[in-house]
């Protein structure tokens, strides 16, 4: 019906949002079957519809209805039915099913006694009727009922939407003052409740009404604010609608080439995704521009595209009032001097608009075309008849428009004056609030100053206490270090004593015992006795070697005198002489200055790990590495044996001993099987340990 119609109808779903469709789909996968899931599906359907994916939007709404039933959420099911009817209002291709959805929604809304939803049913049904000429009176009645329900609910957001729809009807009648007044009502409500989504519909349409009366300043103010909201919400539909309004301003100013480029941009945007209603309007506008440029072939092509694009979506039984291109045909045929075609086209348009007050501007244009065509066809009687009719309609419109311009100027002034009064009251209220806040801030400041003084005293006491504690901690650390050094010296002395006892006493006695066994006269021994005698001598030799090893390992002299590095070198040399396993050592000057407690503990850990390899690994080669890096000493012992069998506990006595030593050094140990076979043990201690 009008340029303004599409945006209003598209944006009336005030509760909808416009986030990224993929984001909504991802969020849906995380929601259970409940009311939140239904609401999220409504949002997704709305965004799909706004972006031209109507079939996906319908599919999502049907799914939302099923989920709402399962979740026992009747309001969600009703809203899905309302949205389905709303989508159909753009096309009028299957109004029967849309009315069936609304009938069910109405019964369900009455059942749950929701006045707002009942009002929404009336509003959606009115939207179905707004483009059908025979249903316009019923549409007006339905909007009045919807407004009454919203006011009873009360639901301010939907009340504003009702004013939106009523304004559309008034725009169709050419009553721009009434339309502006209704949109101002909607705007006041939406600003008071901060309904940004509703404002993005009201502001462009309010600007459109101002534009009809050539009130360019007011129109541009509305369009500028609407553009900010569209950018804020990333709403491409509103942005493209505003492109069309910019083009219309250029068209009114006679700047047809610039307007042509903007209308072409609209056609490209509405073609993908396909939005037939908006596309039809853009084709019609483009045809209108080509008429002004006297390019009638292009004007005719685009006007036909406009007519075909819209009418192929509408039920043939519906007498719709969309006239995107019908007036273009008469203008083109008159310019081409095809007066018979001009009469046919204009008469068809006049038949559609006769007695429909919402189509007065279009009807007046068709009457003018008929008067002009009959004049050129040499039929002065008919030409005079239509000319008088046109003069009466045009004078009425001219007088009404002049009156409306004056009324709008006054009404706009009153509105701005009220806005200024409101802003002054807000400023006064903000000043009072600021004064109260200043008093509170002063009280708070005094309290904070007192609190700061108390806090400073507490902080000073804490600081003094910390200094005392630090001093005591230093003394304790020194004493602990002295005790630890004394303990280590005592342990060293004791280890030397035990090693000496083992070597000088026990080992000597075992050696003497072995000599006496060797002195036995074995001439009279049989074979079993000889074997037993040999085994005893062998065991005594092993015991003697073990005692010497233990006495040596308790405190190797080289460890005490030359440090850990020299002790590890001697250990590997000894191991390579006595065993079939080849031991490799990598020290890289990392342990030459490691002495005392750290050297002894690491040496003992190495012995424990080497002993495990000899007993359990079944390896052919083992590696010992001592490296220093980033303030840490790292001891790595690994072999190429069978590794640690799965399920075998790693809490034996040997490992417990290693862990105890590491706790004293503040270190860590990691044991793992190597990918190429065997076991790897990483021991890591702080360098200062």
Automatic annotation (TrEMBL):
Presence of keyword Iron-sulfur: yes
Top-rank lineage group of the source organism: Bacteria
A Pfam family that the UniProt record links to this protein: HisKA_3
Keywords: 4Fe-4S, ATP-binding, Coiled coil, Cytoplasm, Iron, Iron-sulfur, Kinase, Membrane, Metal-binding, Nucleotide-binding, Phosphoprotein, Signal, TPR repeat, Transferase, Transmembrane, Transmembrane helix, Two-component regulatory system
GO CC annotation terms, alphabetical: cytoplasm; membrane
Enzyme Commission designation: 2.7.13.3
Primary site of residence: cytoplasm
Enzyme class of the recorded protein, top EC level: transferase
Descriptive protein name: Oxygen sensor histidine kinase NreB
Gene source species: Spirosoma profusum
